[in-house]
């Protein structure tokens, strides 16, 4: 009887040690790295009124990276109207019907591709909207598009990645693929404009990398 009791006690003791060791190992496991997902937004409509010599107008289409959705509240990060893109940070540019900036958003423009840009740019490279000043330039090398005055086609510039500080201080990076509905490889006279297709990656943590 004594030997049987001793054997059972030893077995229980050994089991307890094994469970305790496993528990300790689990307590010190390194958390799994968060895998950031590349998402595609297709045919985001950006209508506007006016044009052709008339003042541009109409509501901006406001987009949230964290929600991956068009929003109507103040939790927007960027907004689109025609070829104009604005950020939820800074002050009013002076456009008709533009939304008030309620966030701390800003934009840094990086040459490269979405996969190559893996580090949040330096703070000093970020710009906000201001009076008559666009964080997303409307002309020059850093404009998001080229315009062909012969065909009147608007083409998204390759190799331009826009790193956005969101309205609440997080980060996203995105690249614009097309300005036309269904993103035709070669837009033509019958292509439907003011429909953005873009890819983005949202970084919801405080990490300095994507």
From TrEMBL:
The keyword Magnesium does not apply. InterPro entries: HmuY. It comes from the Bacteria. PROSITE patterns: PROKAR_LIPOPROTEIN. Keywords: Signal. It holds the Pfam family HmuY. CDD domains: HmuY (cd12105). Residues 1-27 form the signal peptide. This is HmuY protein. The lineage of its organism: Bacteria, Pseudomonadati, Bacteroidota, Flavobacteriia, Flavobacteriales.
């Amino acid at each position: 009887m004594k030997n049987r009791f001793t054997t059972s006690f030893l077995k229980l003791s050994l089991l307890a040690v094994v469970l305790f060791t496993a528990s300790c190992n689990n307590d010190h496991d390194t958390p799994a790295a968060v895998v950031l997902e590349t998402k595609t937004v297709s045919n985001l409509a950006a209508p506007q009124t006016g044009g052709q010599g008339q003042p541009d107008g109409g509501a901006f289409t406001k987009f949230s990276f964290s929600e991956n959705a068009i929003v109507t509240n103040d939790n927007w990060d960027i907004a689109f109207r025609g070829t104009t893109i604005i950020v939820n940070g800074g002050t009013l540019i002076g456009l008709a019907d533009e939304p008030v900036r309620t966030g701390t958003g800003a934009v840094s423009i990086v040459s490269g591709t979405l996969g190559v840009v893996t580090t949040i740019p330096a703070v000093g490279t970020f710009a906000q909207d201001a009076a008559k000043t666009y964080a997303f330039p409307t002309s020059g090398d850093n404009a998001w598009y080229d315009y062909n005055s012969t065909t009147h086609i608007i083409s998204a510039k390759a190799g331009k990645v826009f790193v956005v500080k969101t309205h609440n201080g997080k980060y996203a990076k995105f690249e614009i693929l097309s300005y036309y509905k269904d993103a035709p490889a070669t837009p033509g006279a019958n292509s439907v404009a003011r429909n953005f297709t873009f890819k983005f990656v949202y970084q919801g943590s405080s990490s300095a990398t994507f």
